[in-house]
Design a protein that fits this description.
The protein has 675 residues and is α/β, with parallel strands linked by helices. The chain is built from 23 helices and 14 strands.
């Protein structure tokens, strides 16, 4: 990667014009809150990546980089907001100057530029994690397992793993849903084929027996075996297949008879008798507000549970631990078990009715094709509308909710409009008037139509089988991917976990020598538990102090960065990341950074001059490797420390009889002088 030799910031954030010389070494920026430290951090992130994380992402509202990255007085002139930096690329042993303007943040001016330099800078731009603030640091520690998984995988550039897993689950769920839809045309094709062959059960033996009977009339040899490519009309010559009329009279009349039987069943007393208790049960649910609400809630939780695919509620997209979310939904469903049982029983009683509706719709659509083939087409509009109505009613009954709509639909279910029967009778009369075919013509028609319907059935069966294979394969791929990714991530996190534990023990060796941690990946989440004084493993926020949590966050970040970049981890910005860590442990952090990461340049900000003194005394930064911001002014930007200004401000405080503030200024002078 890179190391930064210097940075020049103009009209950017709260800075008007500032140059800092890092000389490729670790550097500290110290100053009270509001003196411009974060402006330098933002400038470093911007010039390297073209973005400012604190001005983007969730919860930023109307804040944007182009509008709010320039100094407030230059907000209408983003072209004046410039950041340039001189870099060294250790791997190439080259120096380069880069410059970026807020007006065109996606354009990086590079001098000099070549393919190798461009490749390195592109790599740096793709890794904004080189800048770490306490806001990002604590997310690794205190986040939910699902959110931590996202954060860590994003840092390691493994976030596509979870996206692929979610997509594979969606594919698996989608193919499962397709199976039910493909069963409907298969059942319709089966019924049509059985009707053409005049058989009561679909089997290879029955198909061959019926087909061979017709083939015998035509003096064709029997078909011995029904293979996947067998044609029932095999052997018919082109002349023999010629038809004197476009409608097979006997088959058409058979199909009309089948439709009449289905409609008679729908409107018959037995069906009405079946519907009556179903209406009563459904009405009792609909008329009881508590029960009706329970059915709606049960459906809500059941549907929600079936579509949970990521670490978020499928309705409001709030982040959740997926196991906890599913557990809560399942608990709700258990509490509604009695209502769910009543609904399931009702749906079981309704199912034969929906199957009857489907049969009616499919059978009527067959008759519509006959109508179009007659010399004088018969008006079948009423029948076709009724077929479409059957499909609509089926969807309503299968949806079940709202219950009142289901009740109303059931009440009208057995009503077959008179004009439907009239249309069918008209078609029947037209077809009956056709000349009767000869015995041979009838046999030929049966074989031809049976073969057509056999092919439709075969195709529907192939589609269902193909989708079943896809569904099984999709489910296996999803499960295999999940297991494999978990295994690989487990090995990866085991390495990071051990490195993290070693780093954390190094800065807490006086009180946590036996510290260990567990990073445990599972489906869509990353568990993180730490040992608390050999009393067991707990989440970091359970018993450890805020200072220890900060230390854990930093150590986990360092372990992850070392794993991600290896020797290429040469630059990082640590923005006030250890503000809650006590002085003793800060010394250990300085020693750790110097010892474990000797080739990494750290640019650190702090509001505590004592912390900066530790950096110097431990040798993490040199005597000149720091800058002290003492104040900030909207017109001038950050003001660096000057001893004359400090004493003048102390005198001003004394003249106002503000002894306490004057004392703070004196202490600041001696602290900085010591540094």
């Amino acid at each position: 990667m890179i190391q930064v030799d210097s940075i020049t910031i103009k009209e950017f954030r709260g800075i008007r014009d500032l140059t800092l010389n890092f000389n490729g070494k670790s550097f500290a920026i110290c100053g009270p809150n509001g003196t411009g430290k974060s402006g330098v951090v933002d400038a470093l992130e911007f010039v390297l990546t073209g973005n400012i994380s604190r001005l983007s992402g969730e919860g930023r509202g109307e804040i944007s980089l182009k509008q709010h990255a320039p100094h407030v007085d230059k907000r209408d002139n983003p072209g004046h907001a410039l950041v340039s930096a001189k870099l060294t690329i250790p791997s190439l042993k080259k120096s380069v100057t880069i410059e970026r303007s807020v007006k065109t943040p996606g354009t990086l001016k590079v001098t000099p530029s070549d393919t190798e330099i461009a490749k390195v800078l592109s790599h740096v731009e793709a890794h904004p994690e080189v800048v770490l603030s306490r806001r990002e640091l604590i997310r690794y520690v205190l986040a939910t397992p699902g959110k931590r998984n996202e954060e860590v995988q994003a840092l390691l550039h493994l976030d596509q793993i979870e996206q692929v897993r979610a997509n594979l689950q969606k594919i698996a769920n989608s193919t499962d849903k397709q199976l039910k839809a493909l069963e409907l045309p298969l059942n319709a094709a089966r019924d049509n084929l059985m009707r053409a062959l005049s058989i009561a059960e679909l089997s290879a033996e029955n198909i061959l027996s019926s087909a061979n009977k017709q083939r015998g009339i035509l003096e064709l040899p029997n078909i011995v075996e029904l293979a996947a490519t067998t044609s029932l009309k095999d052997g018919l010559t082109a002349q023999a297949q010629r038809k004197s009329q476009s409608i097979a009279k006997s088959q058409a009349l058979s199909d009309i008879t089948a439709v009449r039987e289905i409609l008679d069943e729908m409107s018959g007393e037995p069906t009405k008798a079946k519907i009556k208790p179903i209406i009563e049960d459904a009405s009792s649910l609909a008329n009881d507000p508590t029960l009706a609400s329970g059915v709606t809630k049960e459906n809500f939780y059941r549907v929600g549970l079936s579509v949970i695919e990521t670490e978020a509620c499928p309705f409001c997209e709030t982040e959740w631990d997926i196991a906890t979310l599913k557990s809560r939904a399942e608990t709700k469903l258990r509490n509604l078990a009695e209502i769910a049982g009543r609904r399931k029983a009702l749906e079981g009683k309704i199912k034969p009715l929906t199957e009857l509706l489907r049969k009616a719709g499919a059978a009527i659509n067959v008759l519509a094709r006959y109508s179009a083939a007659t010399t004088l087409p018969v008006d079948m509009e009423a029948a076709v509308k009724f077929a479409a109505s059957c499909q609509s009613v089926t969807r309503t009954l299968e949806a079940f909710l709202p219950i009142t709509k289901t009740v109303d639909t059931l009440k009208m279910l057995s009503d077959v409009p008179p004009d439907v029967g009239e249309a069918i009778s008209s078609l029947e009369k037209t077809i009956a008037a056709l000349p009767d075919p000869s015995k041979q013509d009838a046999a030929r028609d049966i074989l031809t139509i049976s073969q057509e319907r056999l092919e439709v059935w075969r195709e529907a069966k192939r589609n269902l089988k193909s989708t079943q294979v896809k569904a099984l394969l999709a489910r296996r791929i999803f499960e295999t991917y999940g297991k494999t990714s978990d295994r690989v991530l487990t090995e990866l996190y085991a390495t990071v976990q051990n490195d993290f534990s070693a780093l954390y023990k190094a800065i807490n060796h006086t009180d946590e020598k036996s510290f260990t941690a567990k990073l445990v990946p599972s489906l869509g989440k990353l568990g993180f538990d730490v040992n608390f004084y050999d009393r067991g493993f707990f989440p970091p926020g359970a018993y450890h102090s805020e200072g220890h949590q900060d230390g854990m966050g930093l150590c986990l970040y360092l372990a992850l960065m070392r794993h991600l970049h290896g020797k290429g981890f040469t630059f990082a910005v640590l923005d006030d990341v250890l503000m809650s860590v006590d002085a003793g442990h800060r010394r250990e952090v300085c020693g750790l950074l110097k010892r474990e990461f000797p080739n990494t340049q750290f640019v650190m900000t702090t509001h505590d001059p004592i912390w900066m003194r530790h950096m110097k005394t431990e040798g993490l930064i040199s005597g000149r490797g720091a800058v002290q911001f003492r104040a900030w002014d909207v017109n001038q930007g950050p003001t660096q420390w000057d001893d004359r200004d400090v004493w003048k401000e102390a005198d001003d405080y004394l003249q106002k009889n503000d002894v306490r503030s004057a004392r703070v200024q004196r202490q600041l002078f001696f602290t900085i002088s010591d540094n």
